[in-house]
Amino acid sequence: MNIQNVNHLVHAYKVAPWRVQRQWIGTVLIVVIALAMISAIFLDVSSRTALAGREILALTASISTSQKNSGDLQTQLALLTSASVMEQRAQDLGFHAVETADMEYVIVPGYTAPSPKILSSSSVPQLSALSIPPEYNESLFEWLDKKLASSTRGQ
Amino acid sequence: MRQQYARRTQLIIAIMGFVAFAIIFQMVRIQNSSQAPDFLGLGDGFQYEWKTVFPDRGEIYDRNGHLLAGNKTVYEITVDLNTVKSPETIASTLSRELGSDYAMVLDQIQNPDPGIVSVTVANPVDQQDGLRLVELTNNDVTGDLRGLNFIKHPKRSYPENSLASNVIGYVNGDGLGYFGVEEKYNNILAGNAVPVAVPVDPNKVSEIPHIPNGTTLILTLNRDLQASAEKILDDAISKYGATRGTIVIMDPQTGELLTMASTRRMNLNQIWDYGSTFDNASDYNPAISIPYEPGSVLKILTMAAALDSGTVTPGTTYMDTGVIYVGGVPIQNWDRNPWGIQDMTGCLQHSLNVCMATLSTSMGATTFYSYMDKFGLGHLTGVDMGGEAAGRLKIPGDGDWYPVDLGTNAFGQGVAVTPIQIMTAASAIANHGNSVTPHVLYATVRHERQYKSDAVFSGSPISAQTADTLNEMLANSLEFEGSMALVEGYRIAGKTGTAQIPGEYETDATNASFIGWGPVDDPKFMIYVWLERPTASIWGSETAAPVFAQMAEKTILLLNIPPDSVRKQIAQQ
């Protein structure tokens, strides 16, 4: 800032001091409004995240309950299809246990004997909170930081 | 005036500035003080809620996916003694709905131990009954059921009741496995109860720890075969008047146990029956826990040792005079008669004690006991169930070993083994010289992935040539004898055993056994039958052998094993 500009400001202040004050007030107001807007957005995002978090907690509890109910039903089903029950049902329906004399073996080309049970299925996703997408637990600042970092890498 | 305001303003600004500075200074000072870590820890403590998570116990399935042990939700019903209004109504309601003892419940509520604020009046209560009581309590407008509390918790459930109870074992009220696979695999079934920090802040939901349930087990057992074995065993015990029995079926090529049936058995959903069912812990699964003198089934091991060491060949003959003296003690055949000139197949066919004692003494103690050791006698087999016993094989140098033991051990007396030990040893004969480690775990399921448990070979006590030769001899001996163990259409190898009960060696009290496998050229099953003290006949050939045949027929059907002729046709194609 050279001396001419300073003199100009001093002169302007002397002529109309309120003009400079208004400029300052305006600048401060702009900063305050900007901060308020950012805070409002932050508050909004945070509250949404908190709600989603609560929902996830409730869903996690619900999954746990469902798994327990599933276990109960599985055990109940096993009771209804236990060896003794099935044998009794077969007998009631008029079946009898097969004897070796009843058996006739036929050669079927390409037949393969069944192998023991495979209980697991890789298509079933593992239930874990780690699979929650970042939209549900990322703060605004983290989102900004990630975007900035990615744009920097892009350059 | 204006100057005065200006000074006041400056003073206020100075004071506020000082206060602000002091606050900032204090904040910085606290952050860097020596107590800072303590404060930080204190703060962190409020961010999380500590909970102990008890994962669900892993399930147990048979090889075909039938549930053998699962979990179900039950209720524990307690009464809060501080808020209870009408003990009589609670007692009568529980008596009506659950069949509880009215007087006992009333006494529990009215006369609690000093200092007790809550008493358990029913546990475990089935979910259906529990829910009905919860509804009754919720709809109770009079408030007479006030004080009743319902606590949900998981409980082990066994849908097949007593089926395979000897193998599965059970879980007590504290969640600890006893006997069988429940004991052996307790650690992986139960999972670990872990204290976890659950974040209070919903923004930290990604930090919710995932506690996996206990590992699920798939057993090698075949449920339907197990049910058949238990039925056949129960019928045999009744038919032959035996006090106890065991039937074990194993795949001799892999060591997979397909069936392990024993008496007695208990309903695993009623573990309080344990005390009235079993006299002691070893009774729970005699197949692995009770060593006994097996008698002549052990002759197959003596013959294997004699053939493998080159002491004899199948065609070697000897003159059976009906008696041999070992260590100055006479040893006689089972019928106390001489059998004349016999070859080695004849020895097995007629189950000649004198022949076996001749073989063991010809081999010498060092060679004979070395082979018995390699067959695993006196050692744990490593079967994956709780409570296995090692049995006893006395050897020279032991205080209770006498020279006559070399003769008697050769035909299965003076030596204590479990059925599973004999099967492990015999698997070497059925499996071209390689013995397998018996196991009941087929696979584990963890994190949605199934991990297979592979066959483990425990050694090669004899050569493949010896094994194949002996296999043939054993099959021939059964056929020449016209054994009751034979199964039409299938070639079977095996050996009976009849042993007097040690101690007084009562003549009419025996252990009747049979071990056999088939089809001989590609064994798919090995069956061991043990009947204790049969009264209809003392001989294994008349009791255990027909039970073997019955079990073998059922096994052939359930495992879909075609007759030898059909298999040969398939092989030729």
Care to describe what's here?
The complex is a heterodimer of chains A (155) and B (573). Chain A has helices spanning 3-15, 17-80, 83-92, 140-154. The two termini of chain A are 36 Å apart. With 155 residues, chain A is an all-alpha fold. Chain A is 66% helix and 0% strand. The relative contact order of chain A is 0.07. In chain B, the strands form 7 sheets. In chain B, strands 2, 3, 4, 5, 9, 17 and 18 form a 7-stranded mixed sheet that branches. In chain B, strands 11-10-22-21-20 form a 5-stranded antiparallel sheet, with helices on both faces. A two-stranded antiparallel sheet of chain B has the order 1-8. Chain B is α+β, with helices and mostly antiparallel strands and 573 residues long. In chain B, β2 and β3 form a beta hairpin. Chain B contains 20 helices and 22 strands. In chain B, α3 runs antiparallel to α4 (102-110). Helices cover 37% and strands 22% of the residues of chain B. Chain B folds into 3 domains: 2-46; 72-159, Penicillin-binding protein 2a (Domain 2); 223-572, Beta-lactamase (3-Layer(aba) Sandwich), CATH 3.40.710.10. Chains A and B meet through α2 and α3 of A and β3, α9, β17, α19 and α20 of B.
Supply the key terms.
heterodimer; A: 155 residues; mainly alpha; 0% strand; B: 573 residues; alpha+beta; Penicillin-binding protein 2a (Domain 2); Beta-lactamase; 3 domains; seven-stranded mixed sheet; five-stranded antiparallel sheet; 22 strands; 37% helix; elongated
Summed up, what is this model?
The complex is a heterodimer of chains A (155) and B (573). Chain A is an all-alpha fold and 155 residues long.
